[in-house]
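FORM 7B: Structural annotation worksheet

SECTION A. Query
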Amino acid sequence: MTELLRSRTVGTSSSTPSASAGGVALPVGGIGPVRTSASARASLPGSPLAASAARRFVRAALAEWVALDVPAADRITDRTADEAVLLVSELVTNAVVHAGTAVEVCCALDVSSHEGDPPSLVVEVTDHHPTRVLRGDPPDGPDGAECAGGHGLRLVAEIAEAWGTTYRRASKTVWFQVSVTPAAEPAVPEEPAAGDLAPSWASRGTGIVAPVPRRVPARRADPEWTRHGALSFLAEASDLLAGQFDEELVTSLAGQLLVPRLADWCAVWLDSGGGPPRLARVWHASESRMEGLRQVLEKEPPQLPATARGGALDWPWPADPAAYGPGGAALACRLIAGGRALGTLLIGRAGLVRMPDEVVGLIEDFARRVALALASARRYTRQATISRVLQRGLLPSGIARIPGVESAVVYEPTGDISAGGDFYDVFPAGDGRWCFVLGDVCGNGPEAAVVTGLVRPWLRLLGREGYEVGEVLDRLNQLLGEEAVGEAVEAAGGADPGGAGLPPGGGPARFLSLLYGELVPLGPGDEGGGVRCTLASAGHPLPLVLQPDGTVRTVAVPQILLGVVEDAAYESETFDLAPGETLLCVTDGVTEHRSGSRQFDDEDGLAAVLAGCAGVSAREVAERVRRAVDEFAEEPPDDDLAMLVLRAL
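SECTION B. Predicted structure
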């Protein structure tokens, strides 16, 4: 297991390896000392065929270990194999979709050295997409977008005993662990015959519902399962489908839940705004027949009458059955939620004249759950798209290059469907001056977005008009108190359910913490070069300066939040940033990140991390501080996080 543990090790100064389980950094001892009984690796291309290849790879590895009498391999049950195949399929699909690079898959059978602990199956999926893109100066590009997160992690969290994600400079690895328990049946079952309802290791995802009956003839329903398993199946389906925010993942889960429990194959079409329906997902109990089924179904999309509503209808078996299996019974059902048709579900079972009534009723109930999940996913997608468009308008498209200064920015809002309250900017102000901003609007959502959308242009205008730093804050404070701002904030709160009940004047969203500064590059003859910095802090965490010898000092003095006292007067401080010195500015999402009762900046925690960054680039300072915030607590930050690093050259 040495190789696997090394690949899961989190970057840390400790000499003891560590792994992350459930998204949380844990010592290796949390899983237990392990030794590898067997392992296998494969490199897959970043193409749509990668997921299928990964499923075949895992099945082949497990089968080979059983054939070679590898210790504990005979204890791998159908359920364990099904879960491993399901999860590796989801993770490889996410890696291909979001990274688009080649993917490495590692599968290992680990035997714990603790007496009584069961063996476990550990699978790793690695892609080569950078974990986070820091906005900064070339050569790596002026600006970068956040990497989209994967959608399969909820499924991993539901099924795996332990899982984790490791970020590296140029790659990301997601791993999961499932237990191997003593099996009462052979570990390697026969290849399922056509028409069987319960093929074993080909049954992707069925282990997450009720236990699968083995080799039930397809020509009759199982009365015992009908009585006792249907409710369990629907409950598990509801649990997995609930909260899914991606309609592609919803269709994928639907197929994995149905095949082979209720059908030999299934397909899901999604309606697309008046255009022809799109065949979003096809599943078949036999991997080799899936592509043939897709080709046939794409030619014959089902057209159900409007009177069908959400009821299931008998449907002709698709043409050319030789391409994917013998003939049988098919069932079509419209996916309807809130009176709106979202798509169509089609399932088939080989060897039947018609579907049993019990199965028809169950499919209708299941289809309603799928439709509700699709409707929720589409609403979320629309909201997330609006938020991303809004967020792009609230933030600068790039960072201005300041002569003699290296810069980097980290920006991570907490939510996907509401614009963050943190913002930043770096812009030229004319006459050899450059201004920088790091702000945090109290609150979030539409109200905070309104304030951000007003403040950033105001700051640019005031800075370019030549106002001094203190004067800029004075005038901005007065503008925030104007009636028009309060009306705009109240309107945004009234348009959003989360903003209901705001007090007159727009509530706390009109309060703003801000760090605003001005930089003037100094020539080599001006006291050794560097830049002259004038800045002021209004209710914001005070910035830190790192000297080349590792000494850290605080600059500026604390002053009241903007928007609280209308006639407040703000003072600025001027100092020189010598070559090799670094200015670090952060929002309270960094300093107040909590681990139990402790905060990250307790006992000068931020300064201690910064002290260890002497001599490194601005980008590396940003990455080290961000990593320290990640590793400080098990839970991710619950507040927006922004960071601006400026290093004099």
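SECTION C. Observations
The first strand starts at residue 18 and ends at 21. The two ends are 45 Å apart (CA to CA).

SECTION D. Sign-off
Analyst initials: ____
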